[in-house]
Amino acid sequence: MCIGLAAAASTHAAGVTDQMIETESSASGNVLSWGGTPQGQRYSPLKQITTANVGKMTPVWAFSFGGEKQRGQESQPVIYNGKMFVTASYSRLFALDAATGKKLWKYEHRLPEGIMPCCDVVNRGAALFDKLVIFATLDAQLVALNQDTGDLVWKTKIDDYAAGYSATAAPIIAEGLLLTGVSGGEFGVVGRVEARDPRTGKLVWTRPTVEGHMGYLWDKDGNKQENGISGTTNQSWPGDLWKTGGAATWLGGTYDRKTGLAYFGTGNPAPWNSHLRKGDNLFSCSTVAIDVKTGQIKWHYQGTPNDSWDFDGANEFITFDMDGKRVGGKADRNGFFYVIDANNGKLVNAFPFVKKITWATGVDLATGRPNFVAENRPGDPTVGDGKKGSEVFSAPGFLGGKNQMPMAYSPDTQLFYVPSNEWGMEIWNEPVAYKKGAAYLGAGFTIRPLNEDYIGSLRAMDPKTGKIVWEVKNSAPLWGGVLTTGGNLVFWGTPEGYLKAADAKTGKVVWQFQTGSGVVAPPVTWQQNGEQYVGVASGWGGAVPLWGGEVAKKVNFLEQGGMMWVFKLPKG
């Protein structure tokens, strides 16, 4: 289905352009991209709200996503021309008046019965381009709607949900292209990045993130041609396992115009049982840097070769300037923080950002490879009774030192603000065979807390030294993202329901508000009618209550929800 975009663009405000997304910050009153800007720093220069006055900040409005459909709310809103576009669980999208919370329209995607999301029915946000708002759905489709009316402009299928594919990430716009990834690594899908024309949804290129698979280009007439395979077939995968290799790009990506590269993290290789797939298993558990114009991988960096712990490398890669270089920072699920040259992928620095790591003793800065602890790899189930390999206790647990919750970087303090978790797991391997649409693990596990007093910790990290400058501990695991501002503030949420603000330099908590349900989403800030607003979605859920083992039992008192909360300073 398609409607006239020219007519739509002529009404109300001009449409969102690629240049606006790249150059505008929320100082203009808009939040035009996941991550605030394509680089994903989640930094806003706004400074009307400061450490001195944030204590006076109060709610302006709250909007319920409604119905019985609650579960995890992990969405970051985007805001343009006084309108907020926020996705909700079960593949819904709401357009709201950003100043009042009045509902303008709602789109509810019709989901089939057989969807198989691994980690709750979440959605992490939408992209804006021209007069369109575009988001992905749990049954692996992309939907583009008219920003003013909510009318469907185009809809297209990414892949087959019956084969385990889904989509939960916010798309991004780079050089006029819509970039998206795929979810479903626990079902033996093949990860990839896709570039589309955002006005039509038509493919421009695809780049698989598993070695051996062919990339493709499409011309303006829709003709498809080969664009070279990713890597070299069977170089780091045995047999045919690369054909169902996982490496899903489930968190989406970032883009840096200075390098011309899009950066996507990749998830675990499939299956979890690493004894079946001897080798590094490229490009799983990696950051891949893709030339947006050609769809070719320019470089990759692999954090966990031959992963045996479900240490997805899907976490965001945030570019910034350090010592005259354009570099990127990444807090990996495996517990290490990496600083990597954004142009060529050379490792600059690597250090732990959690207190306990058992699977490796460190990272060799010369080779970029981890120093594995051999006895901490789960045992081969074919040794012994053939039913279960030897069990090990590993930290972090498979939910990671950091998971989906995006961190923030402040050019003012030159610090990263990392929502981290301290937990471990018992894990063992089991025999497994691939079956289309079925879970493809070959492992059993139980997540356990490491400390009595806390699991989560918001940590201010110095990317040069690897030092924790300050931290704010939290009883429950942190699962929501972070925002930092020119007002010397850091905002983040907790599963206990609080949205908090701290001094970005010292970590002193200077404000908090109880939202009524757990916060597992990243906050945003924008300016409208001369006033600075702060907003966050509230609604407990995500992977922790589903996969968290002993930790899930510890937080089972937390209530689900589905609300969008907005705050500002009172007038006068």
UniProtKB/TrEMBL annotation:
Gene3D superfamilies listed in its UniProt record: Quinoprotein alcohol dehydrogenase-like superfamily
Domain Pyrrolo-quinoline quinone repeat: 33-348, 455-534
This protein's UniProt keywords: Metal-binding, Oxidoreductase, PQQ
Recorded superkingdom: Bacteria
Pfam families for the chain: PQQ
Necessary cofactors: pyrroloquinoline quinone
Annotated InterPro entries: ADHI (IPR034119), PQQ_b-propeller_rpt (IPR018391), PQQ_MeOH/EtOH_DH (IPR017512), PQQ_rpt_dom (IPR002372), Quinoprotein_ADH-like_sf (IPR011047)
Similarity-based family: Belongs to the bacterial PQQ dehydrogenase family.
Name of the protein described by the UniProt record: PQQ-dependent methanol/ethanol family dehydrogenase
Organism: Ideonella azotifigens
